[in-house]
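Table S2 (continued). Query chain:
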Amino acid sequence: MSKPIVYVIDDDAAVRDSFHVLFESHGIEVRCYASSEAFLVAAPPLENSCLIIDVNMPELDGIDLLGRLLRDGFMTPAFLMTGNGTRASLRSTADWNDVVLLEKPIVARELVAEVKKVLGEGRT
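Corresponding output:
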């Protein structure tokens, strides 16, 4: 089995850089993409991985990206990030798709624990 990977999709370079440092400091492989389109073009393998996706991105936003992946049959665990407060429609989308909704600012240690849990590293 391949090593677990976290894919971060966010148009903010500072956010991508901070997640990269955070996950690597915990021994978790991470790959970052500046847009949904860049992620789709790269077509990374989604087995043994999870996604951290910013909701508000230009062109193909995080919800549309997630919807596309789900329609294509991918069942990869996903976290949706928003800085605009939780709207009811966003919460229902997250609940319906079994997606974790994260509101910025995000507590790093809690996120790392959740990522490890979905990747199976938190299991005994």
